């Protein structure tokens, strides 16, 4: 990209789009300009990009909503603002490429909502998670009540909001906040390793994991099984799938564990 939206740094290297939240003096707190910048980026993924990595500049991934810019809103304005978050994060979750989040330091409130919209989360040991909205007399509004219980369970999310509990990175991987945990400073290298692996997948497989699997999970058993059958048939019928299977049978592809 020739230019990045306000408070964001973007770069394309090979097939990977790097997106960095760049408000370190504010602990990468999210304001409307930053949020709309994310929407711009994930709406206009450059041609040839097959995976994206989102991370944070400085000591934190994101400390959440920038409360210093929070203004008093009437009911309709509040609903509209919340729905803007929903619209933007859907661009991440249901966009055109899988997204890997590399987390460190604060992954709090709206920052956790952004991370929850990504497909893979890598946490460095410095990472900590919290939903302080409950202590501030408000409720989450950026999609956490829908996405986070699917990752960590409803009771655990309620605990975070009821008590102000803080979860550290190493504990968080076992609880479902992230799929991976690394030493401090090693998250990006792990993110690049996984992004390259994801980018090497068949395009139909990545599409199915991003767009079909969530619908299967949200559906009833009969509907879910039918969707599974349909996407399995479509994917196995693609020319790329047939070639990959032929390569495996001919010993040209790596076996599991190699």
Outline the structure in words.
- This protein is of the alpha/beta class.
- Helices cover 47% and strands 15% of the residues.
- The chain contains 10 helices and 9 strands.
- It has helices spanning 32-43, 75-93, 110-117, 144-152, 154-163, 169-175, 187-199, 203-218, 221-236, 239-249; strands at residues 8-13, 16-21, 51-56, 99-103, 106-108, 120-124, 128-130, 167-168, 180-182.
- Strands 1-2-3-4-6-9 form a 6-stranded mixed sheet, with helices on both faces. It has a 3-stranded mixed sheet with strand order 5-7-8.
- The longest helix has 19 residues, at 75-93.
- The mean pLDDT is 93.
Q: What are the SSEs and their pairings?
A:
Elements: E1 8-13, E2 16-21, H1 32-43, E3 51-56, H2 75-93, E4 99-103, E5 106-108, H3 110-117, E6 120-124, E7 128-130, H4 144-152, H5 154-163, E8 167-168, H6 169-175, E9 180-182, H7 187-199, H8 203-218, H9 221-236, H10 239-249
Parallel strand pairs: 2-3, 3-4, 4-6, 5-7, 6-9
Antiparallel strand pairs: 1-2, 7-8
Mean pLDDT: 93
Order of helical and strand elements:
EEHEHEEHEEHHEHEHHHH
Q: Using only CA atoms, what is the Rg?
A: 19 Å
Q: How many separate domains make up the residues?
A: 2
User: What is the CATH top level name of the largest domain?
Assistant: Alpha Beta
Count of individual helical segments: 10
Oligomerization category of the chains in this entry: single chain
Fold-level CATH name of the largest domain: 2-enoyl-CoA Hydratase, Chain A, domain 1
């Amino acid at each position: 990209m020739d230019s990045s939206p306000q408070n964001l740094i973007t770069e394309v290297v090979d097939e990977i789009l790097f997106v960095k939240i760049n408000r370190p003096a504010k602990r990468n707190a999210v304001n409307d300009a930053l949020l709309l910048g994310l929407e711009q980026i994930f709406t206009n993924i450059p041609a040839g990009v097959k995976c994206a990595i989102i991370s944070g500049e400085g000591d934190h991934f994101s400390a959440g909503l920038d409360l210093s810019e929070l203004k008093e809103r009437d009911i309709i304005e509040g609903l509209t603002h919340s729905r803007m978050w929903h619209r933007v994060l859907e661009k991440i979750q249901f966009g055109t490429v899988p997204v890997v989040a590399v987390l460190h330091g604060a992954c709090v409130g709206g920052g956790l909502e952004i991370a929850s919209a990504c497909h893979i989360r890598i946490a460095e040991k410095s990472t900590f998670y919290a939903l302080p909205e409950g202590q501030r007399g408000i409720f989450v509004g950026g999609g956490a009540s829908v996405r986070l219980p699917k990752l960590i369970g409803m009771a655990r999310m309620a605990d975070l909001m009821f008590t102000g509990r803080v979860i550290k990175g190493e504990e968080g991987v076992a609880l479902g906040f992230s799929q991976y945990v690394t030493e401090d400073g090693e998250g990006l290298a792990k993110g690049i390793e996984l992004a390259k692996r994801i980018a090497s997948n068949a395009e139909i497989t990545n599409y199915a994991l991003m767009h079909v699997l969530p619908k299967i999970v949200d559906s009833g058993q009969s509907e879910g099984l039918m969707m599974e059958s349909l996407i399995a048939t479509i994917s196995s019928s693609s020319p790329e799938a047939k070639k990959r299977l032929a390569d495996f049978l001919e010993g040209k592809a790596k076996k599991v564990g190699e």
